[in-house]
Amino acid sequence: VYSLCQYGMGNVWEWGETVGANMWRTTGDLMDNYSQMIRVGFGHAGLEMHAGPGHWNDPDMLCVGKVGFGNLRPSRLTQNEQISQVTLWSLLAAPLLIGGDIRDMDQFTVDVLSNDEVIAVDQDPLGKAAGRITQNGDTQVWARPLEDGTLAVGLFNVGRTKAKVTAKWSDLGIAGPQLVRDLWMRKDLGTYTGSFTAEVLPHAAWL
């Protein structure tokens, strides 16, 4: 794996593939700060065209579990914020890198990092990264097509109060009855026509 790490300078995503890179950092170092994390993640709107099999946008490491330089400490991101990051990074087809000690993880961290349905979205062979579908105040909807013909859709609430987030079929380019599955809970939610709405907690996400 050839990784270019110049922190997004020179619009590296526009030419990284031409010099043989498999991935390139799109931003400076990411810390376990929610405001910075969503700014970095959502800042990839429009960069999805530069990602594909063998060449990926890299928005830096996951701030999940224990983090830090040398002396590790629990992430300052809440559990909902950590789930939001993994959700967004998986939609972005980003490399999923951690800097913690895998021998020292609590059950929550293990569960987040080992959800095979979420990882399958990140690693989908089609290699199409997500783009932003809608933005309405503190809520956003992102989606990416998958190899099997389905769509992975993220519903995000960056506000301080819970909010209803709706994914409309017309915005997603689909029609008719659609089966909706909650990948974090690993369960089918039923068949919906026209749209799907979830009540998303503050700083949380559905996938």
Q: How would you sum up this structure in a few lines?
A:
This protein is α+β, with helices and mostly antiparallel strands and 207 residues long. It is 19% helix and 29% strand. Strands 6-7-8-13 form a four-stranded antiparallel beta sheet, covered by helices on one side. Strands 1-2-3 form a three-stranded parallel beta sheet, with no helix packed on it. A two-stranded antiparallel ribbon has the order 4-5.
Describe the protein in words:
- There is one protein chain.
- With 207 residues, the chain is an alpha+beta fold.
- Helices cover 19% and strands 29% of the residues.
- It has 5 helices and 13 strands.
- It has a 4-stranded antiparallel sheet, covered by helices on one side. A 3-stranded parallel sheet has the order 1-2-3, with no helix packed on it. Strands 4-5 form a two-stranded antiparallel sheet.
- Helix 1 (34-42) runs parallel beside helix 2 and helix 2 (79-91) packs across helix 4 (116-122).
- The radius of gyration is 17 Å and the shape is globular.
- The two termini are 28 Å apart.
- The mean pLDDT is 96.
